[in-house]
Design goal:
The chain is α+β, with helices and mostly antiparallel strands. It has one domain: Gcn5-related N-acetyltransferase (GNAT) (Aminopeptidase, 3-Layer(aba) Sandwich), CATH 3.40.630. Helix content is 30%, strand content 25%. The strands form two sheets. A five-stranded antiparallel sheet has the order 1-2-3-4-5, with helices on both faces. It has a three-stranded antiparallel sheet with strand order 6-8-7. The longest helix has 18 residues.
Length: 195
């Protein structure tokens, strides 16, 4: 197994870092919260939550990047996860890299997902030189869709059926947002000093 030095990021208020053992308990709590998991087929039990954290940690260990644990700089409190992921499901637009987030409910509405998401996009486009990053969610998830739009992503006209959601389930229909590296560079050109 290849090992990479993990990329870790800081924003004004947040640290995006490799996972630690003491992240498991608060991560399990947010994965069991019906409000957080409203647009997923079901909440996760502690074993499934721990397995997800372990996968995230392993992928960062292998690649250097992935879905990072997020903590506040002010008090070093774990608030959830944000980052980049290669979906294992065969999606209509595979292969792809997605940007994803999942934050504990008390930390919603504070701009944390957008702030951490911008840092993740910077890694994806600035360091990894990805051509495109996508994001997707159940069609009715207006809060996540608003984050996608704040990140500068563009809604694709295609609605697709997510293969990991059971047939007939109300959350099976998903919407897709895309952002190309060229679009990201254009959006961020005003914020960048002349080189």
């Amino acid at each position: 197994m290849t090992m990479c030095r993990p990329i870790e990021l800081e924003t004004g208020r947040l640290c995006l870092r490799q996972w630690r053992p003491n992240d498991r308990t608060p991560f399990a709590a947010l994965n069991a919260d019906q409000r957080v998991m409203e647009y997923f087929p079901s909440p996760l039990d502690p074993a499934a939550s721990d397995a997800m954290a372990e996968r995230c940690q392993l992928l960062i260990h292998e690649r250097g990047w992935g879905v990072w644990a997020v903590e506040t700089k002010a008090n070093r409190q774990f608030i959830g996860c944000v980052g980049l992921h290669i979906p294992s499901a065969e999606l209509p637009f595979s292969p792809c890299v997605e940007i994803a987030w999942r934050l504990a409910y008390p930390f919603w509405g504070k701009g944390y997902a957008t702030e951490a998401g911008k840092a993740a996009l910077e890694v994806g486009f600035g360091r990894l030189m990805l051509a495109e990053i996508v994001s997707f969610t159940a069609a009715g998830n207006t809060k996540s869709r608003a984050v996608m739009e704040r990140l500068g992503m563009n809604e694709d006209s295609a609605i697709f059926e997510h293969p990991d959601v059971p047939l007939g389930h109300p959350l099976r229909s998903h919407c897709l947002y895309r952002l190309s590296r060229n679009q990201w560079l254009a959006q961020n050109s005003q914020a960048r000093p002349e080189e």
